Amino acid sequence: MTKILFYVEPLIERGKPYWKEGWANFLAKKMASVLSPKCSCSIALNEPCLERLGDVENVNIIVFSQKELLGPFNGGYIEASSAWYMNSYSESQMQYYTELMENKFDGINFDLIITFTPVPFFAKLYPKALILHMEYSLFSRLPFLETWYLDPCGMYEHNFFSRFSTQIENIRLDDCQKLLIGELRETCVSAFTENNIFVDDMMELRKRYKYLVLLPMQFSQYYAFDCLSRYTNQFDYLTGVLEETSPDIGVIFTMHPEYPIFDEETVHFITSKYKNAIFLEKSRKIYAASQWLMPYIDAVVTVSSSVGLQTLLFGNKLFAIGNKNMNYIADAADLRDMRAALASDKRDKDAYLYFFVTKYAIPKEYLFDGDWLYKFLISSTKKSIDSNFYDNIADEKKLFETHIQAIKQNRDITPRWTVNFYEPIIYLLSLNKEYDESHTLAPIKLVFDGAIHYRARFILSDTKIRKLRFDPLEGAAAEVEIVGIKTDAKDYTIAAVNAIKYEGDIYTFITFDPIFEITGDFANASYIEFEYTLRILPTEEISRLGQEQRILLQQAKHIIAAKNDEIALKNSMIQEIKATRGYRVLEKIRDIKDKF
């Protein structure tokens, strides 16, 4: 039985104990579970990740402490990870780790190791084992499918593309393959330009600069940046790039979606000192904002961000300044060559995009398919590590179509927003289900007669929907006017659930969560579109309206109490009348009359 080790880096990286929790719980555990009937699987991880691993059946778990891992490294994690990545370790450090691993694994002789970080000590300890390095590949964030690579060569500058770039670039694509690439690229450009929140800003910047380049921030104190870069931190990285860039080339810098490194003061200083430094405040509101700028820029500058790989999709130039990383698709590796590279003709890189999609970037539907994964891994152990190592993941036409359809479908629920009062949301209430939340595209802003209108369109894909809840904004009290609703639903009614008053189509909400409910026949509806205006209410107006509402409620209570007293009095009088002798005699006469 094939023995497989999933090595989820047990060193605590960047001072974040649970940073690799997702790799342990989502990837390693899930892959091991689909392989366990046919393979003997082990997972190595640290103590924090073990806390959150959950139940794992038929998998051997090996736990490492930081004390034993850092034994030969006085400089801590960054010294250890850098040594393994750059092969700068000492003989004593290598001997310590091989002995540590041999003892921890208690004599297990692994046939295959899947690792999320460089592990040269395993190559020495298990010389016959195949080591596959795993990380996110070309596609990772919505609206793309998530994909990963399993690389036999290494990570970043040591990966398969770097080693076999000549062979990959010489792949000759036929007309059918070129057509598939064209359709994927067209889908990307269309999806990322439709209702793009940045379009006005980018068109204005186009007037001010000869070229626009994108610099996505990363994070330091991590081998994938520190070992590939001469910069010690992200501030030095940004200012270093700006110092070497001509003033007529605009440099748009964006924050990493998980690590927004710069505060407002730092951004202000940088954009004041460097006149070509551009920071779009809207980028704080969009998750993974960099990819939404790709259709409007000329080039990307990066050390190791996957945004650099996305230039293959959008046709941008790439300045790969990270120690030979991505050199195979780079237009320049030195910022001093930026102007010449920007002015040069575009290079044909379609062979690389084709290789990524068909052979290298594995979608999760295959990665978590036990039969596919087992076949891939077993066949990989029998191959030589050469340019023919990878077979097609699946039928190439099917793969391209899968990616194209995913982008089209996911485009309806992206971009994902961070905190934003003006973010319209719709909740779908299906039969026997709770409300499901769905974000719209960035709402289109329209101006009519000086008034700002918003237009938000939602795709309705669930045929069991019976009711919709529309929240035009969150986190603010507002006056909302519903200007119009368009939908292919047959019949519907709309009601403002928590408005304190309304006049015509204008509704006033003093709660910080205005809500409309739409009930109707949505069985065959495909969309609903709202056009509305917003007026955010100032604090004093909210207080005044709240006081008026309290007065009205008190008055209503008095009126209701008076009505109840009046009804009670009338009921009492009726009971007194029914108790009289005359009423009872008349009641008997009525009974006799009814019989005849």
Task: Summarize the topology.
Elements: E1 2-7, H1 21-35, E2 39-46, H2 47-51, E3 59-64, H3 66-69, H4 77-86, H5 91-104, E4 112-115, H6 120-125, E5 130-136, E6 147-151, H7 160-163, H8 165-169, H9 175-193, H10 199-208, E7 211-216, H11 223-226, H12 234-243, E8 249-254, H13 264-273, E9 277-278, H14 290-293, E10 299-302, H15 311-314, E11 317-320, H16 338-343, H17 350-360, E12 362-363, H18 364-367, H19 370-381, H20 396-410, E13 425-430, E14 435-439, E15 444-448, E16 451-459, E17 465-471, E18 478-487, E19 492-496, E20 501-503, E21 506-509, E22 516-520, E23 527-536, H21 539-578, H22 581-595
Parallel strand pairs: 1-2, 1-4, 2-3, 4-5, 7-8, 7-10, 8-9, 10-11
Antiparallel strand pairs: 5-6, 6-12, 13-14, 13-17, 15-16, 16-23, 17-22, 18-21, 18-23, 19-22, 20-21
Helix pairs in contact: 1-19, 9-20
Describe the structure concisely.
The chain is an alpha/beta fold and 596 residues long.
Give a description of the structure.
With 596 residues, the chain is an alpha/beta fold. The protein has 22 helices and 23 strands. The strands form 4 sheets. A 7-stranded mixed beta sheet has the order 3-2-1-4-5-6-12. The protein has a 6-stranded antiparallel beta sheet with strand order 15-16-23-18-21-20, with no helix packed on it. The termini are far apart.
Q: Number of DSSP strands?
A: 23
The residue ranges in which pLDDT falls below 50 over 5 or more consecutive positions are: 431-436
DSSP summary: helix tally: 22
The portion of residues forming beta strands comes to 15-25%
C-alpha Rg, in Å?
Answer: 32 Å
Mean pLDDT across the residues is: 88
User: Which percent bin holds the helix content?
Assistant: 25-40%
For the largest sheet, list the strands in their spatial order.
Answer: 3-2-1-4-5-6-12
Approximate shape? globular
Oligomer: single chain
SSE-based structural type: alpha/beta
Distance between the termini: 98 Å
Largest sheet: 7 strands, mixed
